[in-house]
Amino acid sequence: MTSLHTDPSGEHRLLLRSMLGEDLVLTDADAMARYCRDWHGDVTSSAVAVLRPRSTEDVAACVEACRELGLAVVPQGGNTGLVLGGIPDMPERQVVLSLERMNRIRKIDADDFSAVVEAGCILWELKEAIAAEGMFFPLALGAQGSCRIGGNISTNAGGINVLRYGMTRELVLGLEVVLPDGTIFDGLSTLRKDNRGIDLKQLFIGAEGTLGVVTAASIKLTPNPDQVATALVGLASLEDAITLYRRARRDCSDLMSAFEFMPPLAFTLAREAIPDLPIPMAADYPCYVLMEVSGSGLVDIDNLMQRFLEGVMEDGIVLDGAIASSQAQARNLWLIREGMNEGQAKRGVHMRSDVSVPLSKVPSFVAEAEKAIHEALPDCICVSYGHVGDGNVHLNVLPSVELPHQQRLERIYQSKTILNQVLDRFHGSLSAEHGIGRLKRADFDARLPETKRRLLNAIKNAIDPDMVMNPGCQLNFTGKS
Ligand code: FAD
């Protein structure tokens, strides 16, 4: 028999079950395992319990109960975050609060171009339901089959359509949030313009669950872009890719919706993940761009893409190009981009980054960082790619597969240090999209200007003085100010 005095987690589990009811509280270690493991499977943890509320009132009761018991709350959506923001790191005093059962679409309003949705809606399912009403929700990312809108809002997710529609922040009209004291902030307005004082919802967007639990959101919709043209082009350099981007912004009437750059190695990596993937071009060019132009109504998108590519090929900016002539072909082009991620994962543990620098500095940043890493770590391969139109680069480093695990981990640490040094010289951001979580906390902390630290601590202390929400995520918040 287990003594309650020597097993505080056991006591807390009993109390949570009696306060919240059996249905909401999961305590079986096997059942909890998937909530306590990160997406890559690199980190495994545990928790006092996993709470699975069905309503906003349930969430409020869960937060209240945790506060009373001196437990902390780690909110979780689809658990696709790449920086360990939703994975507990203090198993004895943290509970995971999963929003997965709060997945109702409360309203889709095609007349007002808005929808009101619960935090646990899976992004892809939400997009499908909105498309069925002839509307479009532009947020699009590789994890969209699993990530949930509350997680997207809490990380201020980016993705492939940012250059046209903005980050998640620009798609949110209002929020409903359970605060750390269990009260509910009801800000589910669908107003487009509302300048009545400080816009409080902005505090919770990108807060990674450190200020409260997002339970629902009102979001902006746009007309469905029923015409989409997708092309893969080969170029002589990353500099030419930036020139192409500037030309496309100007010549395509700002209808460009995606612009991703990839190295030739992308084809090999994608085929390692999807062996029979058709690739319409040889890996002969130093740089590739996957671009998309889209629109609805009276514009002729196919003609626009065709004429644009003819022009840039005539001017020698693009050396080779293939335009998808069917949805299936377009899908296959996108599978190169998605497959290259899987291909990297198949090569084992590696250094992943998500950085940003000013657009015009992307080529020199990538050249300098890759050179520094190659010189110091000749047994590693750099793979640079990303949402380059936003100045966002994933410069990943794959240690040789021949190296033993421990040495691979050393290469990851060394390459990350070198990358951060180069990034600091370019005044870039060490998190363009993915947030800070627990993974980047030390690097973020080391670079935090004092005034920003003071403001962040003041906001945290004003909203969550008892440090109930996601301690250890983003920053070790200190002291009441
Ligand atoms: P989780 O991983 O569950 O949580 C993320 C953070 O938000 C945690 O700190 C958690 O505590 C907090 N949180 C979750 N739900 C709530 C809530 N309701 N209230 C308060 N806090 C909450 N990201 C991009 O920005 N752009 C990309 O292009 C992109 N591509 C990806 C591709 C792949 C293959 C993968 C695996 C990930 C990718 N990501 C990308 C990262 C990830 O998908 C996003 O960060 C996503 O927004 C996380 O959503 P989630 O529901 O999985 O959140």
TrEMBL record:
The keyword Electron transport does not apply. Keywords: FAD, Flavoprotein, Plasmid. InterPro entries: FAD-bd_oxidored_4_C (IPR004113), FAD-bd_PCMH (IPR016166), FAD-bd_PCMH-like_sf (IPR036318), FAD-bd_PCMH_sub1 (IPR016167), FAD-bd_PCMH_sub2 (IPR016169), FAD-linked_Oxase-like_C (IPR016164), FAD-oxidored/transferase_4 (IPR051264), Oxid_FAD_bind_N (IPR006094). Coiled coil: none annotated. GO terms for biological process: respiratory electron transport chain. Residues 43-224 form the FAD-binding PCMH-type domain. GO terms for molecular function: catalytic activity; FAD binding. It holds the Pfam family FAD_binding_4. Belongs to the FAD-binding oxidoreductase/transferase type 4 family. PANTHER family: BLL6224 PROTEIN, D-2-HYDROXYGLUTARATE DEHYDROGENASE, MITOCHONDRIAL. This is FAD linked oxidase domain protein. It comes from Neorhizobium galegae bv. orientalis str. HAMBI 540.
